[in-house]
Specification:
Blueprint lengths: L3 E2 L4 E4 L10 E5 L4 E4 L5 H13 L7 E3 L5 H4 L8 E5 H17 L2 H4 L3 H6 L13 E3 L2 E5 L4 E6 L9 E5 L4 E5 L13 H14 L3 E4 L7 H10 L3
Parallel strand pairs: 4-5, 5-6, 6-7, 11-12
Antiparallel strand pairs: 1-2, 2-3, 3-4, 8-9, 9-10, 10-11
Helix pairs in contact: 6-7
């Protein structure tokens, strides 16, 4: 898998449907760099890092989580640097870890075939909470590169975090536009609120979790039409 350059400061390690791997984003500041989402497993995270090394990019010092779902977080134990999540995301991660400890991994592997594709050959399922936790919004400066990390109401989960890079006119959405697992139904009220959020930010590029970059117009249209 090749690392794709999105803008002057942002790269994307592309999604892979077969193993339910989402886009992993990389934001380079002049002083430090940041990743968005931690990967489906340690193997996924390490592949991302090898792609960064091949591109001559330094390892991220911070990884921000867009929400708690396994494909975005279960690589956290292999992350370089620290992980940042909102309070609710961290609570979900702790609860899921407790369930794994109590019940084992069978229920998790049975949830979906793509999960089993990622965790073949007895690969361990390891869940860790974030190192840093925020509520509402946090503003960061990676060195001439401002980054806004904030919670948003969205149809996919109730712990969605979006990442805006104003100087690049990019909004990283994670899976926020999608329906709720496992039925994938889209709540029209929450979809409307997310569409309003995207419209107010006015990015030039929106990056969904499991798709190619899209214009904000397409994202808003999909949300309002209930397609997520």
């Amino acid at each position: 898998m090749n690392l794709n350059r999105l803008t002057e400061r942002i790269w994307v390690y592309p999604f892979e449907p077969e193993r339910d791997r989402p886009n992993l984003s990389y934001i380079r500041g002049d002083r430090w760099s940041m990743a968005v989402d931690a990967g489906h497993s340690a193997e996924h995270t390490q592949e991302f890092y090898r792609a960064l090394e091949e591109a001559g990019l330094p390892m991220p010092k911070l990884t921000v989580l867009t929400h708690w779902h396994w494909d975005h977080t279960f690589g956290m134990h292999a992350v370089h640097g620290l992980c940042l999540a909102n309070e609710r995301t961290n609570q979900y991660l702790k609860a899921f870890r407790e369930r794994l400890e109590a019940e084992g991994t069978a229920f998790f592997l049975e949830m979906e075939k793509r999960i089993r594709n990622e965790y073949v050959d007895g690969k361990p399922v390891i869940v860790t909470p974030a190192d840093l936790v925020f509520r509402g919004e946090i503003l960061l400066d990676a060195g001439n590169c401002r980054i806004r990390v904030f919670q948003a109401e969205a149809p996919h989960t109730d712990d969605s975090t979006l990442v805006e890079v104003p100087g690049e006119k990019v909004l990283i959405l994670g899976d926020s536009t999608g329906g709720a697992f496992p039925e994938w139904t889209v709540d029209p009220v929450l979809a409307g609120k997310l569409a309003e959020t995207v419209g107010k930010i006015k990015p030039e590029i929106c990056l969904p979790g499991h798709w190619t970059p899209l214009s904000p117009e397409i994202i808003i249209q999909d949300l309002l039409e209930g397609n997520g």
